[in-house]
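User: Can you predict the 3D structure for this chain?
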Amino acid sequence: MKRALLCIIIGILGMGMPLAGQDETGCDSEFTGHDRAKAKNRPPSTGAGYDVMGAPTPLTLDELFKLTCELNDQLDDVVSRTADTIPGAETVKVTVRAYLLAVRWEKDDNDLHVQIGPEPKWTTGQLVVEIPAGQDFCGPRTAVYNAVADDIENNGGNSIRKGHIMRDKIPVEVTGFLFFDASHGATADGCDKNGGRGIKGTFTDSPVRGLWEIHPVIDVKLVE
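Assistant: Here is the predicted structure, written as structure tokens:
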């Protein structure tokens, strides 16, 4: 009996299913990563004193990329993987409108890795936006999780834990704080090189552009 129970537990862990105390969306989970943890997990209230871009009219991805390339020049040659939020460059709250293209639950830190793009098809020039685990981010996390669940139910495809590419690519408005992902490359690469990040889908190379993200995401609206 004990042997059978142990096999069941190992099987569940092997499938990557939520552990006890976690719900399906990750609202009850915790951040388990290391790099730039404080900047990645800034609570929504942190943005009260930030510069605001994209309100009331959301930015396009082209406008967002132009902004981050300008801010890239403010960065030091090397951003430490333990660095706190960078004043000026990362103390910016943005809202962008794009299409939800792909989502993966990152097993190393419990973030939802989300890729959004300028068109309702799998194309280059995608942006990574990340939703941390925990109650502070439960609203946007649940919205994205449910959108993926609906797409799987209607169209099939991989689970969110394996990395799901949306069949029905829906428009969304994403709000959050700018973040430079120093763990994947140097600041000189920030505008164009992606450090290999992202779900490739049908492409040989990742369709993600640059090393800038919206991280954390604090709000996601599905646009009708």
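The longest strand covers residues 208-222. The chain is about 20% helix and 25% strand.
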